[in-house]
Amino acid sequence: MKMYWTSATLLALLAVLLALSWSPEAESAAVPSSKGSAKDPQGPMKRIFMKEADASNFFRKRSRRGAKSQDEINAEQRQILAADERKREFHEEKRNEFENYAEEDNDEQDERTRESTEQWREFHYDGMHPPQEYNRHST
Questions:
Q1: Is the separation of the CB atoms in 115 and 125 below 8 Å?
Q2: Which of the 8 DSSP states describes residue 83?
Q3: In whole angstroms, what is the distance from residue 139 CA to residue 130 CA?
């Protein structure tokens, strides 16, 4: 029984290997031998890879302590100023929303107080004297 599974597994792996070697994707995944060299890629590869000298110059130019160009400094400064402006507008909007909420809340509280005061006066008014509101002495 063990021999049967081993031979079946070996046969399945051989079939997969044979199918992969005949598939058209195998040609595109394989490294070309003499068609093109790695020094001068053609087609879409030209856009992805850069020459070795350009790559080393890129890293040398932007080393850790490398000075930034004025254009880079200006671009970063513009980004910082734009972010600050967005933050300022956001906080101003939040402050306005809170002020509106607080004003509405105070107005509602004043209205409730006025209504309860009026109800108290109506309940306690005896009809003999004018209402308290008009019975104030001028000082």
A1: no
A2: H
A3: 19
Question: For position 99, what pLDDT does the model report?
Answer: 97
Rg (CA), the chain: 42
43: left (phi over 0), alpha (psi -120 to 50) or beta: left
pLDDT by residue, tens only, the chain of 139 residues: 667 888 889 889 889 888 887 776 655 555 555 555 555 656 656 566 777 777 777 666 665 666 788 999 999 999 999 999 999 999 999 999 999 999 999 999 999 999 999 888 888 777 776 666 655 565 5
Q: How many residues does the chain have?
A: 139
Dig out the tokens for 121 from the structure: 């006066």
Q: What is the 3-state secondary structure (H, E, C) of the chain?
A: CHHHHHHHHHHHHHHHHHHHHHCHHHHHHCCCCCCCCCCCCCCHHHHHCCCHHHHHHHHHHCCCCCCCCHHHHHHHHHHHHHHHHHHHHHHHHHHHHHHHHHHHHHHHHHHHHHHHHHHHHHHHCCCCCCCHHHCCCCC
129 touches 135 (CB < 8 A): yes
